[in-house]
Amino acid sequence: MKSQNLLLGICLAALIVSEFFLISANRQKGEALAQWHQAQQQAADLQSQLSQATNSEDADSELARLRADNQDIPRLRNQIQQLQTQNANLSQLLKATRQAGQAVQQQLQDLEAQNEQAAEDQQAQQQAQQQVVDRIAAQQRNQCIANLRLIYAAKQAWALEKNKTDTDTPTEQDLLPYIKGGVFPVCPSGGTYTIGPVGQLPTCSIPGHVLPPQ
């Protein structure tokens, strides 16, 4: 009985000691966890501070770069204004050039139309002149043929009155009495008449001035 009570006392004491150690271990664990959380928080704070410090350095660096870039802003603005002015001048020049080109093109078209009209007028004038020349030539040919008929008739009258044969050839003077007005006819085109024998038709030196066969 005493042995059991002693064993029970020992177990109880061991249990109490174990409980004490367990409580102590839990407390140490809690303290360790608290310290770990604290250290983690400190690490996070340090990381945040580091990030802020890094960001601050980047900001300073960016600010310095921006300040350096800002120093070029007036120059860049001046260049932009110059480019805009040049662009406006070029636009005006291009517009003026296009207008001048359109004016020149219009002038060329007008000149071409005038040339075409002048060519048509010249062709029409040439045709009219040719028609006049052809009409005059026809009139002169008809007049010359009429003269040749007159000469032929005068030859026949001369031969009949003078008892001439077909082989006899009269002169202009011989034929004047048989021609109205007593004037030997002249070719209106400047041709030369050949009276020829009585049996032949008189001729003219101008081509086409031919008396048809009688």
Spans where pLDDT lies below 50 across 5 or more residues? none
Please report the distance between the alpha carbons of the first and last residues: 196 Å
Strand line-up in the sheet with most strands = 1-2
Class inferred from helices and paired strands? mainly alpha
Biggest sheet overview = 2 strands, antiparallel
The radius of gyration over CA amounts to 69 Å
Number of helices: 2
User: Please, what is the average pLDDT?
Assistant: 78
Provide the β-strand percentage band: under 5%
Bulk shape: rod-shaped
Order of helices and strands: HHEE
Give a count of the beta strands, DSSP E runs of length 2 or more. Answer: 2
Helix proportion: over 70%
Task: Give the structure's gist in a few sentences.
This protein is an all-alpha fold.
Describe it:
With 214 residues, this protein is mainly α. A hairpin with an 8-residue loop joins strand 1 and strand 2. It starts with a helix and ends in a 10-residue tail after the last strand. Helices cover 77% and strands 2% of the residues. The protein has a two-stranded antiparallel ribbon. The mean pLDDT is 78. The protein has two helices and two strands. It has a domain at 149-204.
Key features?
single chain, 214 residues, mainly alpha, two-stranded antiparallel ribbon, 2 helices, 2 strands, 77% helix
